[in-house]
Amino acid sequence: MRIPILKLYDCLLVSIQGELDDATALQFQEDLLQKIHETSANGVVIDITSIDFIDSFIAKVLGDVLSMSTLMGAKVVITGIQPAVAITLIELGISLNDVMTALDLEKGLEKLQQELGD
Amino acid sequence: MEFQSCVKIINEWDIVAARQLGRNVAKELGFGTVDQARITTAISELARNIYLYAGQGNVYIDKVYDAGKSGLKIVATDEGPGIQDIRKVMEDGYTTSGGLGAGLPGVKRLMDDFDIDSTPGKGTEILATKWIR
Ligand SMILES: Nc1ncnc2c1ncn2[C@@H]1O[C@H](COP(=O)(O)OP(=O)(O)OP(=O)(O)O)[C@@H](O)[C@H]1O
Ligand SMILES: [Mg+2]
């Protein structure tokens, strides 16, 4: 499975759907960085509304995606974190520090626009 | 024990199979969405550890009943290298694989009962149970 990455103006939009296995997660990491490079996108919104759990592996991949995107000059906002996901992440001992988050895709895009200075 | 099912962990797809089975059993037992996520996460951590450190092993999912309570018990067993220093692997951030080192201490916090039995050179057995409140 490959996660589709859409381009909207100078931003990339990703909605992670379904069961996120290890190979798909790693492929997504690679695809997103490639796409940031190709499109010179300034911002990325990753929506995880349909993700119903996150384990330490997926958390590490997501964290790495964030730092790598930052290195490449793109700001990332994560949207749609479910209550159950937030609770289990904290209990696992994982705090995605300095991560920009928003309730939903729309608010995520707004936040990104603000950050990027319109 | 009235119910038991087992997923053999050999490759990374088996990790997905184990956590899907666990979530289904948790749903059947009537766990809420937060506990379902806790159980799914715990199974994913234990199954991945088997895959990473032991190469292969088994994850058993049991429905358990005790003193009028029902619960879900995970048993993760392997015949891998075992764990030398159990206190160390239970520390947050301890990893030998460049991971976050969140797995085992995390599973302990996510579940209600937790127990590791490991013999270096022989293998590891980890039990973790979540009870319905
Ligand atoms: N089944 C096992 N057999 C042998 N060693 C194990 C086993 N499970 C865990 N370990 C050891 O315990 C350490 C800690 O495991 P833990 O799951 O807490 O963190 P991790 O797997 O290194 O990283 P993370 O789970 O956060 O991705 C591992 O690095 C490994 O050395
Ligand atoms: Mg682990």
From TrEMBL, chain A:
Membrane-spanning ranges: none
Signal peptide region: none
CDD domains: STAS_RsbR_RsbS_like
Record SUPFAM superfamilies: SpoIIaa-like
InterPro entries per record: Bact_StressResp_Reg, STAS_dom, STAS_dom_sf
Domain STAS: 1-112
Protein name: STAS domain-containing protein
Species of origin: Peribacillus cavernae
From TrEMBL, chain B:
Pfam families listed in its UniProt record: HATPase_c
Signal sequence extent: none
InterPro entries reported for this sequence: HATPase_C_sf (IPR036890), HATPase_dom (IPR003594)
Organism classification: Bacteria, Bacillati, Bacillota, Bacilli, Bacillales
Protein name per its UniProtKB record: Anti-sigma regulatory factor
Domain spans labelled Histidine kinase/HSP90-like ATPase: 35-127
Organism: Peribacillus cavernae
